[in-house]
């Protein structure tokens, strides 16, 4: 595996992209970064200050002050963190503050990065781009089961409403809206379990990598 290879994995909430990206990274021997944690940590830092995640100045300040240990916080999941992350992610100054961090991570040793704009903004030149999705109903069910597994009381209808709101906010934000890159490989995991999704994704990635390396053999 070439050290400079970057694999971009994008998609909406609860589509399974995080689990998939981790397994791809392990299989290919590449570092892994969940870029959503950067926005979750930024949103949580804003909430810690008692500030509104819509406050662009505060959000940008917190993004610029990000520390590695912020990404390991145990409170980066859940409805409040989800919406705070989506809100700060729509702020141009926040995205600018975190963009170089993400690019440096990927360029240092190659990586698998998952998020919502990896293939469109962070690494538009990535040789492999996956856009992982699933039906809103299935994604709500998965998120509900995840919450139950963590001992968090949740109502399925409420979780579905939150998924709907998050999708709308991510897709309609003026900066880096959620959408597949033009050359992304689409993977619908609605009817696939984690192992089946990984098998399909691995086949897609290997085929795209083989084509890329065959066409750039003098550069790698």
Automatic annotation (TrEMBL):
Q: Where in the cell is it found?
A: Cytoplasm
Q: What keywords are annotated for this sequence in UniProt?
A: ATP-binding, Cytoplasm, Kinase, Nucleotide-binding, Transferase
Q: Which organism is it from?
A: Belnapia mucosa
For this entry, the protein name equals Cytidylate kinase
- Give a yes or no for keyword rRNA-binding in this entry: no
Q: Which Pfam families match?
A: Cytidylate_kin
Enzyme superclass (EC):
transferase
Q: Tell me which residues make up the Cytidylate kinase domain.
A: 7-200
- Offer an example of a GO molecular function term for this protein: kinase activity
- Per the record, the gene is cmk
Q: Say yes or no: keyword S-adenosyl-L-methionine present.
A: no
Gene3D superfamilies reported in the protein's UniProt record: P-loop containing nucleotide triphosphate hydrolases
Which annotated residues bind ATP?
A: 11-19
Q: Which branch of life, at top level?
A: Bacteria
């Amino acid at each position: 595996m070439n050290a400079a290879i970057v694999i971009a994995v994008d998609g909406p909430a609860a589509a399974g992209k995080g689990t998939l990206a981790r397994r791809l990274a392990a299989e290919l021997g590449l570092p892994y970064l969940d870029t959503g944690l950067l926005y979750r940590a930024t949103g949580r830092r804003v909430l810690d200050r008692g500030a509104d995640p819509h406050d662009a100045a505060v959000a940008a300040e917190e993004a610029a002050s990000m520390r590695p240990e912020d990404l390991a916080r145990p409170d980066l999941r859940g409805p409040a963190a989800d919406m705070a992350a989506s809100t700060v992610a729509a702020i141009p100054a926040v995205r600018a503050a975190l963009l170089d961090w993400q690019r440096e991570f990927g360029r240092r040793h190659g990586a698998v990065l998952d998020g919502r704009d990896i293939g469109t903004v962070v690494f538009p030149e990535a040789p492999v781009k996956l856009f992982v999705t699933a039906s809103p109903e299935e994604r709500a069910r998965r998120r509900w089961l995840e919450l139950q597994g963590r001992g968090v009381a949740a109502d399925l209808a409420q979780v579905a409403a939150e998924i709907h709101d998050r999708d709308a906010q991510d897709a309609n934000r003026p900066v880096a809206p959620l959408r597949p890159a033009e050359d992304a490989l689409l993977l619908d995991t609605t009817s696939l379990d984690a192992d089946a999704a990984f098998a399909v994704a691995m086949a897609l990635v290997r085929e795209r990598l083989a084509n890329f390396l065959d066409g750039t053999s003098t550069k790698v």
